């Protein structure tokens, strides 16, 4: 029986682990196949407070893990197949571990960025291919870059990236965009944004130094074209990692866990969510860490209320 189990080891889960471990709650953290989350696929992180010269993503996650271990957090590797939320304590079936039982559960499984699935893409993640303009835009100052996507987030990222890039080319596979009219008007009014609509991405082209362009097919003519650029930002959305919950916890239409505003509480008492699995807006390491702190404090308060109720009885 654990007082608290944390599923996921990105900034949110590790921050929750640090807070719970320091509160002598001896949390168990279950790591999946990619410990550390999306930051382990990034290179230099310059916008996480406290690191004046920046820090490599994997190093930041390793430091956070060691900090949690220092205070007594336990880490085990496994894949959570299912969670029984019908009664408390909650039961988890974990591949490679078996059944685990806990009084509180913190879900910090994050969201997985959608990729195009074309040649050269995964090979160049961190070498010019990115899914986060806020994280990586600074590295493309005065360079030409590409944004792939046609929704609000793609146009928002294109506009943001014009702060740094000399030119931003927006590539979309259809002639019409899915973005709202106000976002389209804003982007079309930006002189630094050029348009490559009705183009299907075929391959990320790169040299030993990194990305050099994106090969696309002109859907109208069938001809292949090369759009030269130093970076390719893929902005086609994310998948929240909530499939293992089997609909037991309330989510929005896109699968993100719904929490009570101002807290990390879900619709089930004793289950909390933090990080990108419940964040549809910010998706930053620092906001994930902050929500991890909230989840730990909410879980600690919940455990205290149970103990006080037991004493009263």
Automatic annotation (TrEMBL):
Gene3D superfamilies: FAD/NAD(P)-binding domain (3.50.50.60). Its cofactor is FAD. It is an enzyme of class 1 (oxidoreductase). Residues 3-292 form the FAD/NAD(P)-binding domain. Keywords: Disulfide bond, FAD, Flavoprotein, NADP, Oxidoreductase, Redox-active center. Binds 1 FAD per subunit. GO terms for molecular function: thioredoxin-disulfide reductase (NADPH) activity. Its EC number is 1.8.1.9. Pfam families: Pyr_redox_2 (PF07992). Coiled coil: none annotated. The keyword Cytoplasm does not apply. It catalyses: [thioredoxin]-dithiol + NADP(+) = [thioredoxin]-disulfide + NADPH + H(+). The keyword Transport does not apply. It comes from the Bacteria. Belongs to the class-II pyridine nucleotide-disulfide oxidoreductase family. NCBIfam families: TRX_reduct. Homodimer. This is Thioredoxin reductase. The lineage of its organism: Bacteria, Bacillati, Bacillota, Bacilli, Bacillales.
């Amino acid at each position: 029986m654990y007082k608290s189990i944390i599923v996921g080891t990105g900034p949110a889960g590790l921050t929750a682990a640090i807070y719970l471990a320091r509160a002598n709650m001896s949390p168990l953290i279950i790591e999946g196949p990619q410990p550390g989350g999306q930051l382990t696929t990034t290179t230099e992180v310059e916008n996480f407070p406290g690191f004046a010269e920046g820090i490599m993503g994997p190093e930041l996650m390793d430091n956070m893990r060691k900090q949690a271990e220092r205070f007594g957090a336990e880490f085990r590797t496994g894949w959570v197949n299912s969670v029984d939320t019908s009664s408390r304590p909650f039961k988890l079936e974990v591949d490679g571990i078996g059944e685990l039982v806990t009084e509180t559960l913190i879900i910090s499984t994050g969201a997985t960025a959608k990729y195009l699935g074309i040649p050269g893409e995964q090979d160049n993640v961190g070498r010019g291919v990115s899914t986060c303009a806020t994280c990586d835009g600074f590295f493309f100052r005065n360079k030409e870059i590409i944004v792939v996507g046609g929704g609000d987030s793609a146009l928002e990222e294109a506009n943001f990236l014009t702060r740094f890039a000399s030119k931003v080319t927006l590539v979309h596979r259809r002639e019409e965009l899915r973005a709202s009219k106000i976002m389209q008007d804003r982007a079309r009014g930006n002189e630094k944004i050029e348009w490559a609509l009705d183009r299907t991405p075929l391959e990320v082209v790169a040299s030993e130094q990194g990305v050099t362009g994106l090969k696309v097919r002109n859907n109208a003519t069938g001809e292949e074209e090369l759009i030269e650029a130093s970076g390719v930002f893929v902005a086609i959305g994310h998948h929240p990692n909530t499939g293992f919950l089997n609909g037991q916890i309330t989510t929005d239409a896109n699968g993100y866990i719904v929490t009570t505003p101002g807290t990390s509480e879900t619709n089930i008492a004793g289950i909390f969510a933090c990080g990108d699995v419940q964040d549809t807006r910010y998706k930053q390491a620092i906001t994930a860490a902050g929500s991890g702190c909230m989840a730990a404090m909410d879980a600690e308060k919940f455990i205290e209320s149970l103990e006080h109720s037991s004493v009263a009885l």
